[in-house]
Amino acid sequence: MKKLSLFFFFLLHINVFSQEIAVLQYKGGGDWYANPTALPNLVKFTNSNTKTKIHEEIQTVTLNDETIFNFPIVFITGHGNIFFTNEETNMLRDYLTSGGFLHVSDNYGLDKYIRRELKKVFPELELQKIPNNHPIYHQTFSFPKGLPKIHEHDKKPPQGFGLFYKGRLIAYYDYESDLSDGWEDTVVHNNPKKIREKALQMGANIIEYAFKH
């Protein structure tokens, strides 16, 4: 029943006057609550620069009930361990295969844990490098070179990875970019204006893409 309800929700959500997004509270000890000003700032920017009308209050969801099915896009971030139980793994798989979208932003330190957990959710899928010509990089804002670099840690290039299920991009993972740091209040990281704008523009693209697909 929940898959059918979610299917009709996704048919309608582009046309409603208000949409909502959520951040996932996960187990494992990692700081799922990192970057508290990031999503509110991204929502304001996205509403001002695209055709979205997203509710500015960010919701928190878990994988312990079906509340997640109320949201077309859910965000994960943090610096440390993340762990899904078997029940949570099944819930996330149902959400994503029913039309939901997941954006994971590695806040430096999440990588080995999120790869492990996503493999539990989709053992048959591999994270794939998203090519620079993919539509997620060419929504309201265009990024011909792909994912922008926001913060430097290991002198590695920023990389956008994705999970594709039956040809649909269901999860986008920004790695070595610290994209969500660029959404935070300016005083938090003192990012230059141009860098912060790139981060917000890319974030808006991700939301816009998720709402359309």
Number of helices: 6
**What is the domain tally?**
1
Number of strands: 7
The helix/strand series, from N terminus to C terminus, equals HEHEEHEHEEEHH
Give the end-to-end Cα distance, rounded to a whole number of Å.
Answer: 21 Å
What is the correct CATH architecture?
Answer: 3-Layer(aba) Sandwich
**The CATH class:** Alpha Beta
Radius of gyration: 16 Å
- Using the alpha-carbon principal axes, give the shape: globular
Widest sheet, order of strands: 2-1-3-4-7-6-5
Helix/sheet category: alpha/beta
Assembly status: single chain
The overall average pLDDT, rounded, is 89
Strand content: 15-25%
Descriptive account of the structure:
The chain has 213 residues and is an alpha/beta fold. It has a single domain (2-212), classed as Domain of unknown function DUF4159 (Rossmann fold, 3-Layer(aba) Sandwich). Helices cover 33% and strands 16% of the residues. It has six helices and seven strands, in the order αβαββαβαβββαα. Strand 6 (159-165) and strand 7 form a beta hairpin. Helix 2 crosses helix 6 and helix 3 crosses helix 4 (111-121). The protein is globular and about 45 Å long.
Quick overview:
This protein has 213 residues and is of the alpha/beta class. The protein contains 6 helices and 7 strands.
Features:
213 residues, alpha/beta, Rossmann fold, seven-stranded mixed sheet, disordered N terminus
Write the layout of secondary structure elements.
Blueprint: H1 2-12, E1 22-24, H2 38-49, E2 59-61, E3 73-78, H3 86-97, E4 101-106, H4 111-121, E5 128-129, E6 159-165, E7 168-175, H5 186-189, H6 193-212
Parallel strand pairs: 1-2, 1-3, 3-4, 4-7
Antiparallel strand pairs: 5-6, 6-7
Helix pairs in contact: 2-6, 3-4
